[in-house]
Amino acid sequence: MNTQINIGLVGFGTVGEGLYEVLQKSPNARATIKKVCIKNPEKKRNLSRENFTSDVNELIDDTDINLIVELIDDADEAYHIVKKAMQKGKSVVSGNKKMIATHLTELIQLQKENKVALLYDASACGSIPVIRNLEEYYDNDLLKSITGILNGSSNYILSQIFNHEQSYEVALKKAQDLGFAESNPVFDVEGFDSLYKLIILTVHGFGTIVNPDDVLNHGISKISDFDILYAREKGYRIKLVAQVTKINKNQITLYVLPRLVTPDKYIYSVEDEFNGVVIQGEAYDKQFMFGKGAGGHPTASAVLSDITARAHNYKYEYKKQKYFTPPSYSTKHRLKIYLRYKNSDDFNHFEFEDICEKYTSEQNSYVIGTIKLENLLKIKKMLPKLDVFIAYLGDLIDTY
């Protein structure tokens, strides 16, 4: 069935305007934007004023609008809009990864109760169709891990550092000037954006819903010239990597950490604002997906894909929850990490099981050793206050 889609668009920022422009180039999409809800109706835009409203209820209550497309930054406001629309019997397309990851259980239930669909391929990895591939192509229980560079902003910054020898501060400013990073970059550079995307990929890959507060995420804002020099001398590149891994038949683990990546890894060559996702299975080994992860048009193309899917009545089935017993989330294993610190007080917060390499100087010191993931989680909220940089060195050590 191919249905004409009349869109009520919430938000007309970089992605919202990008969607409007992409739709103009896609005459076969069978979709039109009927009304746009924005905060500031006085701001000059590329559409005439009668296309806009500041009252979202005009979209939700309009019986001619059969799809709400939500593209705003405010996760709390997005949640209320999406929930109200679904309760009203309207399907929704959203790109708000924080809202989705935080309310996944309720959002899945709302879809069932109201017989509507919520699609959000645009919420993870920009132009890469990873969610629908996990849902449809990898719809069995042979999946072993999902590893990826999920944030284009932080990857652009790290590419500038390693390829153009720029400082973190200069690279960040350049990312902000190009629109890849916000004026307040915490969401990107501290790994929250990657974390929320990882939560979403986990439910479609393994069927397990994990509270973002229970998952370790540590970003790149504390990276120093010392860390960069260490990585270069050892032949590594530093990437901000999100990973979910099946550690045994009944358990998975997940985290977002900077990683010291060797040249033999697929993600080693993922540069600039691009994303890369490695999907590993029992039978098919590793498969690699690559594409732009930041920018208005790449993300808008993912939104358009969801809109087109709704024209054919597509919805996520959450097959891993429906047909299999989802594995539980565990932090009972050890990681091998590089820890750079400047004073012993900061170092004393880390409970290493063993240390295999150590360097000490007046300005910078580092250790390489194994540490329990659950012990890192205990100091998760403290980590941003410490003058340290952490990087993961590879696969899991073991469970205990």
- What is the tally of helical segments? 15
Amount of beta strand: 25-35%
What is the annotated CATH architecture of the largest domain? 2-Layer Sandwich
The strand count comes to 17
Shape: globular
Which consecutive residue ranges, at least 5 long each, have pLDDT under 50? none
| Whole-number count of domains | 2
Question: By helix and strand content, what is the structural category?
Answer: alpha/beta
Indicate the percent of residues in helices. 25-40%
Global Rg: 22 Å
What distance separates the N and C termini?
A: 52 Å
Biggest β-sheet description: 7 strands, mixed
Question: CATH first level of the largest domain: which class?
Answer: Alpha Beta
Mean pLDDT: 92
CATH topology assignment of the largest domain: Dihydrodipicolinate Reductase, domain 2
At the fourth level of CATH, the homologous superfamily of the largest domain is Dihydrodipicolinate Reductase, domain 2
Keywords:
Dihydrodipicolinate Reductase, domain 2; alpha/beta; seven-stranded mixed beta sheet; six-stranded parallel beta sheet; Rossmann fold; 400 residues
Structure characterization notes:
The chain has 400 residues and is an alpha/beta fold. The chain has 2 domains: 5-125 and 296-317, Rossmann fold, CATH 3.40.50; 132-292 and 326-392, Dihydrodipicolinate Reductase, domain 2 (2-Layer Sandwich). It contains 15 helices and 17 strands. Strands 7, 8, 9, 10, 11, 12 and 13 form a 7-stranded mixed β-sheet that branches. Strands 3-2-1-4-5-6 form a 6-stranded parallel β-sheet, sandwiched between helices. The chain has a 4-stranded antiparallel β-sheet with strand order 15-16-14-17. Strand 15 and strand 16 form a beta hairpin. The termini are far apart. The relative contact order is 0.14.
